[in-house]
Amino acid sequence: MIVFPNAKINLGLCVTERRPDGYHNLQTVMVPTGWTDILEIVPARGAETSLTTYGRVVDCPPERNLVMKAYRAVAQQCPTLPAADIFLEKIIPDGAGLGGGSADAAFTILGLNEVFELGMDRSTMARIAASVGADCSFFIYNQPAYCTGIGTDISLDVHPRIDGLSMAIAKPRGQSVSTAQAYAGITPRAAAVSPREVVSLPVEQWKGLLVNDFERTVVAHIPRVGELIAHFYDAGAVYAAMSGSGSAVFGLFATAKMAQEAVAGLEDCDTFAQ
User: Fold this and answer.
1) Under DSSP, is residue 17 helix (H, G, I), strand (E, B) or coil?
2) In contact, 186 and 213? CB cutoff 8 Å
3) How are beta strands 84-90 and 50-55 bridged, if at all?
4) Claim: this prediction has a pTM higher than 0.90
5) In a 10 Å sphere around its CB, with 0-12 CB exposed, 13-18 middle and 19+ buried, how is residue 17 labelled?
6) Which partner from 28, 164, 213, 231 sits 20 to 30 angstroms from 199, CA to CA?
7) Average pLDDT score, the chain
8) Among 8, 69, 90, 171, which one carries the catalytic annotation?
9) How far is CA 197 from CA 27, 29, 216, 231, 253, in A?
10) 50-64 pLDDT, tens digit each
11) Cβ contact 33:7 at 8 Å
């Protein structure tokens, strides 16, 4: 079977406290986008599971790829899981804060469940996904969600007022941010206003209320991020911000034409508009 793991954006991201285990608690609203990779899962021709990647070069050996980690996590839940041949075409840029790798892992779990008729329900798959990576659980549900804890506590009772808006995304080529780098510049603190509350307001009221705690630090290291946010506002975005820990920037626009025009000519960026 062939599936299309999609990127996400973060509507606000507040890092609220450092946990005793070294991770951080956060508050964010995640929303799926139409920017996708391509993932195919078929029963293996041989005795071992294999992963073949195409498209964007991923600086990671296949055995350490989140797709293979997801396969192994499913195998722990289902010890009789057959071997699979998995083919992944990478399109979503990495180091972008778009969750491409997490999406690939989650869609691997969903795909294995369907191909091999494992009978797992969403909550079981979300639990498995959480063991693979912090953002992975979101993609099991793949709808707007309020995410807390380390990102694995999912509430679907959130309704961002973005219906009818179009989206543009731009990620500066060759300028990525590691999660460790992003967190190094953060001082955790309680959110002044929860992102969940802000996104229930009209989008025109989000600016100044809906914040990404990583944005200031990342802009200091990668000024192009700040330039892209300003560019989207200049192009007519009703809201623009960095996604996740960066370095991708998104803008929300009144029309698809405006979104497409906003990314036209950004030759130093990987772009998407919908």
Assistant:
1) strand
2) yes
3) parallel
4) yes
5) exposed
6) 231
7) 95
8) 8
9) 11, 10, 22, 27, 21
10) 999 999 987 778 788
11) yes
* Residue 8 annotated to the active site: yes
Distance CA 54, CA 242 (A): 27
Q: Which of 169, 151, 38 is nearest to 104 (CA)?
A: 38
- d(C-alpha 10, C-alpha 249), whole Å: 10
**Out of 37, 104, 135, 213, which one is annotated catalytic?**
135
User: Where do the H-state alpha helices sit in 65-116?
Assistant: 66-77, 100-115
3-state secondary structure of 114: helix
Phi, psi of 184 (to 5 degrees): -60, -25
Task: State the burial class of residue 139 (Cβ atoms within 10 Å of its Cβ: 0-12, 13-18, 19+).
Answer: buried
Q: At 30, is the secondary structure helix, strand, or coil?
A: strand
Do you know the residue count of the chain?
A: 274
* Domains located in the chain, CATH noted: 2-155 (3.30.230.10), 166-273 (3.30.70.890)
pLDDT at 177: 74
Q: Is 207 a catalytic residue?
A: no
Tokens found for residue 100: 């491409």
Q: Which residues contact 111 (CB under 8 A, 6 or more apart)?
A: 1, 3, 39, 41
**Which residues lie across from 87 on neighbouring strands?**
40, 52
